[in-house]
TrEMBL record:
Name the UniProt record assigns to this protein: LysR family transcriptional regulator
Record keywords, A-Z: DNA-binding, Transcription, Transcription regulation
UniProt key word Acetylation: no
UniProt similarity note: Belongs to the LysR transcriptional regulatory family.
UniProt key word Ribosomal protein: no
Stretches assigned to the HTH lysR-type domain: 15-61
Family annotation (Pfam families): HTH_1 (PF00126), LysR_substrate (PF03466)
Species: Celeribacter arenosi
InterPro entries: LysR-type_TF_proteobact-type (IPR058163), LysR_HTH_N (IPR000847), LysR_subst-bd (IPR005119), WH-like_DNA-bd_sf (IPR036388), WH_DNA-bd_sf (IPR036390)
Family annotation (Gene3D superfamilies): 3.40.190.290, Winged helix-like DNA-binding domain superfamily/Winged helix DNA-binding domain (1.10.10.10)
UniProt xrefs under SUPFAM superfamilies: Periplasmic binding protein-like II, Winged helix' DNA-binding domain
Amino acid sequence: MHRPNWDDYRFVLSVARTGSVSGAARELGVNHATVLRRVAGIEQRLGVQLFDKSVRGYEISADKLRIIEAAREVEAAVGAVERLARVGEAPLAGVIRLTSTDTFCHVVLPPIVAKLASQERGLSFELLSTNAHLDLARLHADVTIRPTFKLPEDLHGEMAAYLGVGYYTRADAPEDHWIGTAGSIARSHITQKLHDVLDSMNVKITAAADSFLTLRTLAEAGMGRTLLPCVLGDASPTLVRFEGPVEIAPVPVFVASHIDLADAPRMRQARHRIARALAAEADSLLGRSAVTA
């Protein structure tokens, strides 16, 4: 069997990154037919079908994740050969796809990934912001940063910090006006318990949102009291924190990968660096603002 060279894998990885043959063609500066031919050729030589083709595009077959990650490590190594002689931690290179909540993607992660990318010339990041859990088995992301009390069985990672959650309001907002949660953030145990208590208090729900960023903006507009991650609420110049009706424990923040890729050296190193950076922000994540009467 003819051994495919590195150039063959470039086409496969480009399709995996972009999710389509046309996207890979644009990325590589070749035509559509060339990408199809090169991908089909490497699949034939390896004797496997690497992609599931659907209306959503080209997705990695779940049982082929290890092959794709091995190819991505080759890609990273090719770009880092001259830097491997450096003393200390091996360089991290290539594209790391991160998924997290809108709070983390907008407030917490940008300075972290900017610093990491500045330290490694061949490293870049994709941030995928969603409050729902992506299926990492489909290679939608490499690493997920999630506030949760327990990781799903298909994820493996480490706890990096705690996320404080508190109650915030504009000082002049009516005490009986509240802003509720919707969508995926409304399904947590904390928010469900809070909603039950608010129902018994007969308060007025003036609005609801499926994003903590939107909840903060609504609270800043004076629409009422709401629940926010402290890293958002403490940063607001117009909101004050108060003692709410339900006690809220800090939520662990995990940095994890799909269990099939957890031991891949590049994934381990990416998780370690991100977790270390989050640990350095422990105070701001936990929240240190004073609670008003």
